[in-house]
Specification:
Layout (H helix, E strand, L loop, with lengths): L1 H10 L2 H24 L13 H4 L4 H30 L3 H5 L5 H32 L17 H16 L2 H10 L2 H16 L1 E2 L2 E2 L5 H19 L8
Antiparallel strand pairs: 1-2
């Protein structure tokens, strides 16, 4: 299995995604540092926090929001490139000609993306937490809202990372059913909106049961993606 995963990384030129991840992390770092210490969310005329920024009470919430958005989209884009695009371009035909079960091939493709994006998201979040901590003592528009010495921070970071990258299995399933990478990307935006939206006074991002339901739905979608791989025709 590990050799199949490595082959997927090589075949899909994983280095270009490493570059994308590094650039994305740098942009997020600059944006969040500016929000926290340069006062770009404060009205220069009144010195009062803009209404659109008031809901993001701490930098911990903003790190989660922006990094999760970036990686939900990146993970879905990679799933589309590794799997959906391979079907559409018929390159999957060659893979399925190997004496390896189709389910194992599909699972290795999914895991290649899952492992890369999971590790990248963890590193990016840790980078952002450390970066903003370096500004300690500067005048901050938002409190940090986290403690780097707390074990709970890292447990929460790991659990949220697992949830975020696993959610990409839902748009993957949608994209394969509709035979469209665009449908997968659009679905990822919708999922992010559901996870972080509000309905009246109800904040979905603060719901305990919703992430569990979404995680379960993602696992079901992942199972359905490979369930009939041996019998189905290629796209």
């Amino acid at each position: 299995m590990w050799k199949l995963i490595q082959m997927e990384w090589k075949k899909n030129h994983i280095k270009k995604y490493v570059v994308t991840e590094v650039i994305g992390a740098a942009i997020l770092g600059l944006l969040l540092f500016a929000l926290c210490y340069w006062g770009i969310a404060v009205d220069p005329g009144t010195g009062v926090m803009e209404e659109s920024a008031e809901e993001l009470a701490t930098m911990a919430l903003q790190i989660d929001l922006f990094s999760n958005l970036f990686y939900v989209i990146l993970t879905t884009a990679m799933m589309s490139s590794f799997i959906i695009k391979a079907y559409k371009n018929r390159t999957q035909n060659l893979m399925f000609s190997y004496p390896i079960p189709r389910k194992k091939i599909l699972f290795s493709q999914m895991m290649a993306v899952w492992i890369f994006c999971g590790a990248s998201l963890l590193i990016t979040k840790l980078f952002l937490y450390v970066l903003l901590s370096l500004g300690y003592g500067l005048s901050a528009s938002f409190p940090l809202g986290y403690d780097l010495t707390s074990p709970g921070l890292y447990v929460q970071m790991i659990l949220k990372t697992i949830l975020t990258v696993t959610l990409s299995l839902i748009p993957l399933y949608v994209g394969r059913q509709l035979k469209s990478s665009k449908a997968a990307i659009i679905s990822s935006f919708l999922i992010f909106s559901v996870m972080n939206g509000t309905i009246g006074d109800l904040t979905l991002s603060g719901s305990f049961i919703l992430p569990i339901l979404m995680f379960a739905a993602a696992l079901v979608c992942g199972f359905l993606t490979i369930f009939r791989a041996e019998q189905e025709d290629l796209m």
